[in-house]
Amino acid sequence: KMTQQMRDLQLAQARKPPGPSSPNAAKRLYRNLSGKFRVNYTSFDEGSLAGRGEKEKLRKSYLFQSNAALFEAVELQDLDRVQELLKQYSPEELDLNTPNSEGLLPLDIAIMTNNAPIARALLQAGAKESPHFVSLESRSLHLSTLVREAEQRVNELTAQVVNEAPNADCSEKEKQLKAWEWRYRLYKRMKAGFEHARVPDAPTNVHLSVASSSSVQVTFWEPLSVNSAVVTKYKVEWSCSPTFSPPLGEAVIDKLKNLHFTIRGLVSGTAYYVQVSAYNMKGWGPPQASVPPFAIPSNWREYDGRAPRRRGQAEALDHLLGQVKTVHQHCVCHEPCKNQPQSRKHSVSKSLKHLFHPGSKFLKTLKRGLYLTAIFYKDDNILVTHEDQIPVVEIDDTYSCLLMQDFLWFTKVSCMWDEILWLRQCVTVSQSSCSCILQTRFKMLLAISQMQGLLGIQDLGQVFFEPVKDKQGNILIVTLKEVKTNQTFESVRWVPICKLQTSRKSVSSPEEPTALDTLLISVQDKLAYHQRSSHALSPGLYLGYLKLCSAVDQIRVLVPERLPNILCHVKIRSNPNISREEWEWLQKMASAEEPIPVEPEAETSQNHLFQELQVAIKELMTLVNIPLQEAKDFRLYSQEVLDFGGQVSFLLLLPPSDDVCTAPGQNNPYTPRSGFLTLPLQIFELGEER
């Protein structure tokens, strides 16, 4: 009966070309693949192919051969070749989960020969076990049939080789005999691997945590035992009873790249027990209960019913801005712009007018004054004018000392690039009688409009956290923007940054470089800052360190250079949620006059958080160069958990009250190591919002 099933299966797979019949044939195929098929099929000269149908036929031929090569690589236990093929082709192109003529998949061969590295590589690529093996008996019968038929074929070929006289046919029979002898040994090894295998041990390090008010997350590791067969899937079960009677649900995990699972749709305030078991070709192993044994879905806000800090704030600000615009829409200053369509066509025509206006052009040199420069970059190229200059426009030629308040006001305006025309018209009303500060800010808005018109684009990007100055009294406000699409600009062109730096002729001395020369020398640093400031943290709970220092006109905050939009930090864990029980414990710790003892062996979420915090605090103190004994006077900010988008949250570690902000002239004995900088607090807040 099994033989008949195998024949039917062979007929069903008749279109699939068989793999090489011997190890030598496999090696020849590998050489062919290395020399011919390693490149993508579209790289061949398409002119030599007679039509699209022939190209598709050739493509399928390459893919069929790559599938055969994958089977042979698994059979020969060639891990490097398996990884190369998995990297070069998609699972669909390899027919990764289509059985061969023997009813086997690559994963079947790997696990039955107990080749764990190849099996793991296949599993991570999405490989499955053969659907024909519905039971242990069917797998055993299938293997026995393969061994018996291979042995029978070896006997037949042996008799033919012995009885025939030496000739060309006999030589071919000898090759077939060697191939079948090799396949016979392979099937025997697979059969022995199956017979000696046992069910897997329980998974290890099964940890349960609260993910939200309606979900819990379980993470786990592979079983420790290396003597059983390769694990191909896991089962997560949950229940409200410690005996799992009745069970509430289960989930099978067959994508083994990340061993974790989030159980959703749970009831807040209810305890849930979780266990995990592993599966291999011999069946399911024993379950392993989680640590802690149960978890209660909750969130720290449930402790006192606190609403999110920023709930509705963005909508309220948009509404307020809309009200302000409504009040000003009938203003005399807005009459000239009522009939101007806000379109790309208008922007282009406006910019063309600027090109012919004698006062609206990019500057080549700087005089004593305040200027705006916009740096647009794409890969290693930067946008320059036709004179190979970074785009610069004048703000005020009589302004010699940039006040920090004016600069910070400019950074806030950068959040409203599309509203510059409206802001400028609002300021125009009282310009004739306005203060010096208002006149300067009006000139800033005018320079922004001029830059937007000359470039033909509204969004000038992010403001660099400090202006570039020189001893001649020039001040450059710098904006940075990365261009990721094929965007069209006017009056400018792209050049490599290195070419611009080497070809520019400096008009200043190395001892006293101009602001433009300083900008060009440090442009890579500024681009690196801009790129790093847009990076996001991976999901998780972090411990942040808040350290401020004050100057005459500003407060600055300590941040890492590698991520300047975030406080100095270390990661506590991958789960960003703080449960109600954990937050209640933190409140007790914060209000206690004496340290609260923690039982080291207690399997609770609070004890686990305590251990995680101990590790994180030590790591953070080392990072910012503060002796660990000084940390005994530090405290956790216990008013709230800082939440950023639901996927990232922060607990803050604060120095003693007197040391949170270092005053001018105050000695700070613990200077962080290299890799940190201080940003104006307002700049940091804007970067955080972005």
From TrEMBL:
A Pfam family per the record: fn3
GO biological process: establishment of mitotic spindle orientation; regulation of establishment of bipolar cell polarity
Residues in Fibronectin type-III domain copies: 202-299
Region of interest called Disordered, as start-end residue ranges on this chain: 1-26
Gene Ontology terms: cellular component: spindle
Domain of life from the UniProt record: Eukaryota
Protein name as catalogued: ANKF1 protein
Organism: Pelecanoides urinatrix (Common diving petrel)
Gene: Ankfn1
